[in-house]
Design brief:
By secondary structure, the chain is α+β, with helices and mostly antiparallel strands. It is built from twelve helices and seven strands. The relative contact order is 0.10.
């Protein structure tokens, strides 16, 4: 394929049936994986460009049809589902113990519910990946080359299926979820790659230290394709969602602030990482001071927008840091 321009879904193989096209794609993807794997160092390989000749909207629709298979394979729960292994009396005891340690009752209840519940809740894309969007992402990489950047052709395919899993408690959840994804992918005959932060060039856990509140994991599963798992602290997810809303609807800039402004996102991120890395161990007062600074900065950030109030869902996230 010489030009990276949007194609009609059957422009390369017009006489091939839909089923044949789907089977050929999986065969070609298997070959590509044998040669490159999911290794991040290979994301600039031209084989990812050549793979587009075997993609069609029918292929992307077929991959999306296997979403429920992925949900079952990884034991994911939808947001309104819960799995609690503790009795009501045991939960009450845990709440009482946390209150005795200095937590408020609300904080204690939130912590206990989080521990008792299954950590693998998810949200996901509600429709198949769009073919023209995939081709455009490849074209965007060509623009990166013109700017002197290293292309990442793999990123056109990294979210053929995409799930977001919350990391409400970074220290408890991140390693648990990564371990679960890794073992399940391997049991399913696939593999996994964790994307490094583009600025720090580190994964979210390096040498026993937490370095980020976001971790992208890419899983390859035979006969399904490549699945993206976005492992996000709720504050990161909220910030990214708001940022997308502001970008897509500029009129919203008059009623809600960008949470990256005045380094507010960095302030909250650093607090979450310090907490996970034990920086407040034995010093609840220091933690309370830092937490209050976040709440005060959030109030100041929202004062000149809309009605000046912090949205309740953001307030709940910040109160439960």
């Amino acid at each position: 394929m010489s030009a990276l321009a949007p194609l009609s879904p059957h422009s390369v193989y017009p006489s091939r049936s839909s089923a044949d096209s789907v089977n050929l794609f999986y065969s070609r993807l298997d070959d590509t994986m044998l040669q490159l794997g999911l290794l991040e160092k290979n994301w600039n390989n031209p084989l990812w460009v050549e793979l587009v000749d075997f993609v069609s909207q029918d292929v992307l629709n077929d991959i999306y049809s296997k979403k429920e298979d992925v949900i079952k394979l990884f034991g994911l729960l939808k947001p309104n589902e819960a799995r609690c292994s503790l009795s009501e009396r045991a939960l009450e005891r845990k709440v009482s113990n946390l209150v005795a340690q200095g937590f408020s009752e609300g904080q204690a209840i939130a912590l206990v519910e989080r521990e008792a519940d299954c950590q693998f809740h998810f949200t996901s894309r509600e429709r198949p990946k769009n073919y023209n969007r995939l081709v455009q992402k490849l074209a965007d990489q060509e623009e990166s080359i013109k700017k002197g950047w290293t292309p990442r052709y793999f990123q056109a395919y990294n979210d053929l299926l995409a799930f977001s899993i919350p990391l409400t408690n970074l220290k408890q959840d991140l390693s648990k979820v990564v371990s679960h994804l890794t073992s399940t992918a391997q049991q399913g005959g696939g593999c996994i790659e964790l994307r490094k932060n583009k600025n720090t060039h580190m994964e979210s856990i390096e040498n026993g230290k937490y370095t980020d509140i976001v971790q992208f994991a890419y899983v390859y599963l035979p006969n399904i394709g490549i699945v993206e798992f976005q492992l996000l602290h709720p504050f990161a997810r909220y910030t990214f969602t708001r940022n997308s809303e502001l970008r897509e609807n500029p009129a919203l800039k008059a009623v809600m602030p960008n949470l990256f402004a005045n380094k507010f996102y960095d302030l909250v991120k650093t607090f979450i990482l310090d907490d996970a890395n034990g920086c407040f161990a034995g010093d609840q007062n220091a933690r309370n001071i830092r937490h209050q600074e976040i709440l005060d900065r959030a109030v100041a950030l929202h004062q000149s927008f809309g009605n000046g109030e912090i949205p309740q869902d953001l307030k709940d996230i910040l109160l439960n840091l």
